[in-house]
């Protein structure tokens, strides 16, 4: 039998998407940022058509990189459909501080309800913890809006097993979660940790290490995957440390 979507009175909301101008719109009112022409269609009209077909009630529109800090297209969409769309602005790390004022205007004047930080847009050699980054983050707090971070490289600590397990040592119930983590991130993004000194009174430090091997046999993990989790991942993340 074909699958039927169950009826619900709850609104269906898409929490992450982008729109950008059609080529015709880009040639006129909503130009693309130089060198940032999009690879596929993403117009507002196309989104509305897709949402209608899928019976999606609303969406959270994140300012696209193809228009960089020119928010006019997204602004027009959220103003035209205020009950359907919520806008998320793109943090502008301009060194003259103009992005801080822009964020304030986008929220207070244009109705944006969040801001996204993209580390790739910061000036070369700078981090999002620069003075401009701190000023933008502070302004977001002052305005009371959520801050989203674009993460391009995520690592997960498989640590303090005694805290997350519902069973005593060797915490065999964590085999399933570990398997899911390996599938989702890869062993090259997982790092073992103990949460010393709290672990000493729980299982003891040595047994905290041995537990990962025992859990790994349940997954099962290969020897190379276990090597990554037990040390190689963190060594690759901090390449100047722990070398012979």
From TrEMBL:
Keywords: Decarboxylase, Hydrolase, Lyase
UniProt keyword Nucleus, yes or no: no
GO MF, one example: carboxy-lyase activity
UniProt xrefs under Pfam families: Amidohydro_2 (PF04909)
Domain Amidohydrolase-related: 13-150, 151-238
Keyword Cytoplasm: no
Family matches, as InterPro entries: ACMSD (IPR032465), Amidohydro-rel (IPR006680), Metal_Hydrolase (IPR032466)
Database matches in PANTHER family: 2-AMINO-3-CARBOXYLMUCONATE-6-SEMIALDEHYDE DECARBOXYLASE, CATALYTIC_ HYDROLASE
Sequence similarity: Belongs to the metallo-dependent hydrolases superfamily.
Protein name, per record: Amidohydrolase-related
Origin species: Trema orientale (Charcoal tree)
